[in-house]
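Internal tracking record. Fields below are filled automatically when a chain is submitted to the structure queue. Please do not edit lines marked as system-generated. If the sequence contains nonstandard residues, flag them in the REMARKS field before resubmitting.
Queue: standard
Priority: normal
Entity type: single polypeptide chain
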Amino acid sequence: MSDIIERLQSTLASGKDGLLVRFGLGQALVEHERCEEAAEHLQAALAFDEKHSASWLWLGKALEGQGKLAQAVRAWESGLAVAQAQGDQQIVRMLEVFLKRHQGKIPRPTIYHNPVCGTSRKVLQILRDYGTDPIVVEYLRDTPSRHTLAGLLAQAGLTPREAIRSKEELYKVLGLDAAGITDDQLLDAMAENAILINRPFVSTQAGTRLCRPAEVVFEIL
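SYSTEM-GENERATED OUTPUT FOLLOWS
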């Protein structure tokens, strides 16, 4: 059992009940895939404050985790109305993504991911927190073709020089820092040596970005 779940359950058992205890417990239980229990606590949180938009968001996740999609959509619709009234734009954006996903209006995003990279992991978590089910391409193992790579750069509005990892030792070993190196030569090097591709690239229905810093991904969600 997670430490936070145990701690919050102990708090609740001691008689200290409230919105934040119930919300925190519900959220933690969803993250541990204990969705039925989570829904009970999130509903209790909303009994304390029906205008707590984050509780509506996580209640929808808990219901979705139980396969109760119609109920999840109703929870998200309620949360969206609350968040819009309160001007909570981050929650509004997340709930709009969840609702559009169930309406089948947005394709799955694709992330070109390196699991050892902290920024890449953060972006992947943001995508999942927004309710998307991203296609994860671990590009060091499944290297995109030169054509695909050129397309990503064009969509992101970047040159090969802007997208290459110039801090990699291989960059200097190959002499890519030399004067006169062309974009085509840089693109060839990236296609042949995936470690030189900066990360993570993310493509959604709204566009493609090199998500450094991680918050850039919000531009295309």
